[in-house]
Structures are given as C-alpha cells and as structure tokens.
C-alpha cells in the first residue's frame, strides 16, 4: 500500500479499511525487476541535455499501450541512475563492444520457437522448473513498458558519444525483447499465474512467494510454500511473514521472522553486495510499528505525533530491539542461518 498524506499530525486511514497506511515495499520485493530489465545501462552516467529525443511506444500482449512519451510512472520502482540528477558530461570514451545477448532482458536462446510455445510445452509436460523460468521472463514482459520509459529518459539526457552509442544499442536490443513479449497472445498475467501454480504444486523454491505476491496468497498450498521458502532463506518470504501477510504463520513464526530481520539488519555477515538488504525491511517494520503503537493507544498525543513522523522523517518509526524470548530467538537463529547459507551459495554462483 502506498503511503498517503496526513492531516493534523495523525496518520491518514485507508478509505476502505481501518488500517493505517503502509510505506512502499523495499526494492527487494521485485523492485529489482526494473534494474534487471535495464541491464548494463544501470551503470552509465547521464548527460545534462537531450541530444536526440526518442519517444517510446510499446504495445504489449493484447495491444494495450504500455509506454508512450517521456513521462515516468512514479508508482513504479525507479532505476537509481535514471532517477538521479544529471551528471556533468565527462570526456568521451571509445565505443564499447558488448554482445546483444549480454544486454537482453529476455534470454532469447531459451525460446527458439517463442515464449508462448515454451509456456505451452512446460504446462503440457508438467515441467515445473521450466514453468518457473518462463514465469520469471513473463514478469519481465509485464515491466517492459516501464523499462522502455526509463531507458528513453537516459537516452534523451545523455550527450556523451560513447555512452549514447551503448544506450542506442540497448534501445535496439530492448525492442527485440519487446517483440518477444508482443508475440504472447492473451493475458500475460493469467499465463504467468498458470505457470506459477504448476511450480508451487511441485514445490519449486521461490514460486510460492511469487504466486502470493501475484495475488494468490490466500491459497493454503501457497501459504505452505511461503513458509517453506522462509525456512530455506528466501528473504521475500521472511518479509511477508514478518509483515503478517501469511495467515497460516503461527504467532511464533511471525515473531521469529521479525526478530530475524531486526538482528539480521545489524549482522555484518549479511551485509555487502548480494546481501538480503534487511536494513530496508527493518526500516519498514519500524515505521509501521509506530502506527501500531498509536492505534493501540489512540488517545495518546505523543504516540499520535510519533506515528505521523514515521511517514515523514528519514529515520522515522520506533526502534525495534531484538527479542528476549528464548523460543523466538531460537527460531529466528534458524532463519538467519538459512539466510546466510543462501547468500553464500549465491555468492559462489549457486
């Protein structure tokens, strides 16, 4: 849920529920999708003025326009470089030589007969791992319009010749990515749900969280899979349980998931590149904790003011401390150990 404005220093309530607004989820919930789609352009600098404006218009499956003009959708996760202030143009470097395949967001070699054929084959053969792989690429297709808009913004603001040449190449490659997505008939989201459902049936790691985030989190099989993924060290599953989004989670599991985030965000073994970025999750929990404290004591002016500041201040929210409950800590230790194993495997290329 997106945070809303506050009147008279108090958190505004959602129009349809009695829940206080929640800040935007951190990037680790799929916000990385746009970064992965943009690929190599993420590390490019930006020029001050547009050199040759490019207007993006891409029509996804079903013919609906997904991107047009130069506007950026503020509800989408932004690329940190594309959203930054334009950098001063530096000295022009020589042209870079990067294969198209390295810039592609869709693994073209995986789909010699096209993505629809690969999806149909995975469903017919009940190949859950292939289904999960295709579902991941369909998610890229769902974000293609945003990727084109962000790339367009970079291209229009870049004057450095070498950087612009690479962006032009990536623009061409992204059009090929878009063509793969355009060739998918019908509802891309519905097809992705079918593929994820098959992956959950065969307990492919990660599929439960993906299906839950796609709006199917109320299904018992999906909730069971999310809990299994949390035990395997999947940070998104841990976050969902800590946020109270998994009805099948016990109070002990919820408390342990929160404690794992509180302690893990301060654990040096979980920091650095490729880490689970638990500091972002902790920030989310702390901001919401301030609102929960006010809702439990609505007549307390101090808590009301603290809840209001939680949505505004850079370091808003109540500071959460590690649990002192031995059962909670013991289970949280298991979750932290699983996070570390998964991070180590990822760093080793596993």
What report would you give on this structure?
This protein has 350 residues and is an all-alpha fold. The protein is built from 14 helices and two strands. Strands 1-2 form a two-stranded antiparallel sheet. A hairpin with a 5-residue loop joins strand 1 (56-59) and strand 2 (65-69). The radius of gyration is 22 Å and the shape is globular. The protein starts with 31 loop residues before the first helix and ends with a helix. Mean pLDDT is 77; it is low at 1-24 and 26-92.
For the secondary structure, the number of strands is 2
What is the radius of gyration?
Answer: 22 Å
Apparent shape:
globular
Order of the strands making up the biggest sheet? 1-2
SSE arrangement:
Blueprint: H1 32-38, E1 56-59, E2 65-69, H2 100-103, H3 115-125, H4 128-142, H5 144-157, H6 161-182, H7 188-201, H8 207-216, H9 220-231, H10 235-242, H11 251-264, H12 278-296, H13 301-310, H14 326-347
Antiparallel strand pairs: 1-2
Helix pairs in contact: 1-5, 3-4, 4-7, 5-6, 7-8, 8-9, 9-10, 10-11, 11-12, 11-14, 12-13
Features:
single chain; 350 residues; globular; 14 helices
Briefly say what this structure is:
With about 350 residues, the chain is mainly α. It is built from 14 helices and 2 strands. The longest helix is centred in the middle third of the chain and has 22 residues, at about 160-180.
């Amino acid at each position: 849920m997106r945070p809303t404005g506050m009147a008279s220093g108090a958190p505004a309530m959602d129009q349809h529920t009695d829940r206080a607004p929640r800040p935007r989820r951190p990037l680790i919930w799929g916000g990385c999708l746009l970064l992965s789609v943009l690929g190599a352009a993420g590390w490019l600098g930006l020029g001050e003025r547009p050199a040759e404006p490019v207007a993006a218009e891409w029509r996804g499956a079903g013919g609906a326009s997904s991107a047009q003009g130069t506007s950026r959708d503020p509800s989408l996760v932004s690329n940190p470089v594309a959203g930054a202030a334009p950098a001063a143009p530096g000295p022009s470097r020589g042209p870079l030589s990067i294969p198209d395949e390295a810039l592609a967001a869709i693994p073209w070699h995986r789909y010699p007969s096209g993505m629809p054929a690969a999806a149909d084959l995975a469903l017919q053969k009940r190949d859950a791992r292939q289904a999960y792989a295709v579902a991941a690429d369909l998610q890229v297709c769902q974000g293609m319009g945003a990727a084109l808009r962000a790339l367009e913004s970079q291209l229009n603001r870049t004057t450095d010749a070498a950087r612009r040449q690479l962006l032009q190449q990536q623009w061409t490659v992204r059009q090929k990515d878009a063509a793969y997505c355009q060739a998918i008939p019908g509802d891309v989201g519905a097809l992705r749900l079918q593929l994820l459902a098959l992956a959950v049936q065969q307990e492919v790691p990660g599929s439960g969280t993906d299906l839950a985030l796609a709006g199917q989190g109320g299904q018992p099989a999906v909730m069971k899979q999310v809990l299994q993924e949390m035990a395997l060290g999947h940070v998104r599953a841990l976050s969902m349980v800590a946020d109270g989004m998994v009805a099948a989670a016990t109070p002990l599991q919820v408390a342990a998931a929160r404690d794992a985030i509180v302690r893990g965000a301060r654990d040096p073994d979980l920091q650095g590149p490729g880490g689970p970025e638990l500091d972002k999750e902790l920030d989310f929990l702390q901001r919401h904790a301030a609102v929960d404290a006010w809702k439990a004591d609505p007549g307390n002016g101090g808590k009301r003011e603290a809840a209001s500041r939680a949505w505004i201040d850079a370091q808003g929210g109540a500071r959460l401390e590690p649990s002192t409950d031995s059962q909670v800590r013991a289970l949280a230790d298991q979750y932290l150990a699983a996070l570390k194993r998964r991070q180590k495997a990822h760093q080793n290329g596993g």
